[in-house]
Amino acid sequence: MGLFEGKKGLVFGIANDHSIAWAITQQLHAEGAEMGFTHLPDKDPERPRMERRLRKLVDDFDKFILPCDVQNEENLDAVFAKAKEEFGEIDFVLHSIAYAPMDDLKGPVHNVSRDGFKLSMEISCYSLISLASRARKILKPGGNILSLTYLGGEKVIPGYNIMGVCKSALESTIEYLANELGPEGFRVNALSAGPLKTLSSSAVGEFDQMTKLYESFSPLRRNITPEEVGKTGMFLMSDQASGISGENLHVDAGYHIMG
Ligand code: 0WD
User: What does the domain layout of the chain look like in residue ranges?
Assistant: First the structure.
């Protein structure tokens, strides 16, 4: 019997088959989880690219697929209403979302615009609060929320720029949420992944140099694979991790320990 047999949850952040959320979803599905998924609303309803890409991946097993821009309260309400209708209660929420406008992301933090800062923080950090406040109303005791972060939230990583500031805020938010939701029986954790080529990461400058550093200097002298991130994400959301909350678990071939 799979670790997620009878378990139900929501997955936010599959953009395509390179997405980290997809790597985790494949492991959750293999362990028997039932899931509802969201995608960014398509700008042109005549050409629903985002929806089509997601549908192609999860069509065989999704319970539902809904558009959701995390900046839109009505979208968020609709997703959690649907989850309640479909599942009653849920066991997990995967938050695998980040965004910063290209002009702000490419440049130094001291040049970030006020609007760019607000937008990046809202989508990359506040969105977790939006999900948590709704999730706690339908999470089962023992349920949990997992979010994705990167080492650039703990240390200065050249090229990571404003996203590093967002990840710092996200990691702190995870700790506060873990403390607040713990007494209700819920866990909140972060998975800090090494660099993987995805739509989002291709916008981060110096990405290729980052992966080379992992191959040369991490304790394992290599980078990680999507499958490794997927398996650890699945573990953290499973009952096997029932004693883990407020954690920031690095799946980065050990790179974070290096000076
Ligand atoms: O190396 C990497 N790829 C790492 C990524 C290393 C460590 C952490 N991460 C983090 C990212 O910062 C992010 O939090 O993992 C998370 C997932 O990122 P990903 O899998 O690398 O990127 P991607 O496949 O692009 O998924 C992120 C998705 C968006 O994709 P696009 O590329 O279309 O922006 O976040 C979603 C969207 O699906 N997203 C939103 N969802 C709802 N509302 C919004 C929004 N406003 N904006 C972005």
Answer: 8-257
Reported ipTM: 0.97
The phi, psi pair for 156, rounded to 5°, reads -75, 120
Pocket probe for ligand 1: among 97, 145, 166, the residue whose CB has the most ligand atoms within 8 Å is 97
Per-residue pLDDT tens for 196-219?
Answer: 999 988 888 788 888 999 999 999
Residue from 10, 18, 20 whose mutation best tests the ligand 1 pocket (most atoms within 8 A of CB): 20
Interatomic CA distance for residues 173 and 168, integer angstroms: 9
What is the percent of the chain where pLDDT is above 70?
A: 100
What are the tens digits of pLDDT across the range 177-192?
999 999 999 999 999 9
10 Å CB burial of residue 66 (0-12, 13-18, 19+) is middle
Strand partners, 66: 38
Per CATH, is 8-257 categorized as 3.40.50.720? Answer: yes
Q: What does the pLDDT average to over 15-27?
A: 98
8 A C-beta contact, residue 36 and residue 79: yes
